[in-house]
Amino acid sequence: QVQLAESGGGLVQPGGSLRLSCAASGIIFSRYDRGWYRQAPGKQRELVAVIFSNDRTNYVDSVKDRFTISRDNAKNTVYLQMNSLKPEDTAVYYCYAHRGSVLWGQGTQVTVSS
Predict the structure, then answer these.
(1) 23-69: per-residue pLDDT in tens?
(2) Helix, strand or coil for residue 21?
(3) How is the chain classified by DSSP, letter by letter?
C-alpha cells in the first residue's frame, strides 16, 4: 500500500523551530520529486519546499534561509526543518511525491503563536 505519513507538527512560539517528517511506504521515495505544501485558513495551498529526484532543492521566497528540506533515502523519509517560525507560517503542511501522478500525505498542523 502506497502511503505518505507526516509527523512533527504542533504548537510553537514565534522564533521557535519544528521538524516535520514524511515517511513513504510502498514506493522508492528517492525516485520522486518530493516536498511540502501548506494551506492556511482561507488561502490557497502553496508549495513550500521541494527536493527533486536529482537532489536539487527549491523554496518559496518566504521561507528561504529559514526552512531546509532534506532526505534520508535509507529511511525513505523526507524532512522539513523549520527555524525562526513566524505566525504566518501557521498552516496545515502536506507532504507530497510527484512522478507523473501526485501522492499526498494526510497533513499535519503547524501553529505558530505566543
Answers:
(1) 999 999 999 999 999 999 999 999 999 999 999 999 999 999 999 99
(2) strand
(3) --EEEEE--EEE-TT--EEEEEEEESS-GGGSEEEEEEE-TTS--EEEEEE-TTS-EEE-GGGTTTEEEEEEGGGTEEEEEE-S--GGG-EEEEEEEEESEEEE---EEEEE--
Task: Specify the residue for cell string 527536493.
Answer: 51
Q: Locate cell 535509507: which residue?
A: 74
Tell me the three state secondary structure of residue 40. Answer: coil
Residue pair 30/73 in contact (Cβ under 8 Å)? The answer is yes
